[in-house]
Description:
Layout: H1 11-19, H2 32-52, E1 67-71, H3 79-84, E2 88-93, H4 96-108, E3 114-117, H5 120-125, E4 130-136, H6 145-154, E5 156-167, H7 171-184, H8 201-210, E6 214-224, E7 229-233, E8 239-246
Amino acid sequence: xxxxxxxxxxxxxxxxxxxxxxxxxxxxxxxxxxxxxxxxxxxxxxxxxxxxxxxxxxxxxxxxxxxxxxxxxxxxxxxxxxxxxxxxxxxxxxxxxxxxxxxxxxxxxxxxxxxxxxxxxxxxxxxxxxxxxxxxxxxxxxxxxxxxxxxxxxxxxxxxxxxxxxxxxxxxxxxxxxxxxxxxxxxxxxxxxxxxxxxxxxxxxxxxxxxxxxxxxxxxxxxxxxxxxxxxxxxxxxxxxxxxxxxx
Length: 248
């Protein structure tokens, strides 16, 4: 199969998330874990962007003038707060249902967000460029990881950042993020994650290095059941985030 015929779209995954689209903004619905997780990942994203681009995080709109792509944006849980911080944000998703929900919610809140039904490889083909790429909880759902990462890297501007958040392929992740979260606690619909599609940090780092990116930070994110909060951690055995920079 040549590059022109390859795709990142996994139809089964797109269909699954499309069926849940109406619940994106329900904090007690199918995406409850993301609502709880969102403040932690948003704080990390804001902190690292401000540090890299020499912005004052205390300003009302510290991300003003930065073009950010949230690929696999879903209903816009990250796009909206980043837009409020001043970012020029594009939210892209292959699910028309997800984008429709995102557009409606943004309009209801008076936010100007460029939502598109598209894929990362399509954005790459038309020559789009961004200061920051957000690949948050999406790489484990794509059909072709190498194509996904290559296309993501190709739309980065010089000195741009790429955030990749995903689940580690460990037995601990299988027990907590799949068995417990999907089948016991019912935090997520059954089948949301497939163990064989999870990626170890070493595997993603290899993809990034081949593409000429430099890994500048890595962090785990762990759940505290006593406080019902997510926190940064040195433990990357379940949830983790890699941060890479494109230095030309």
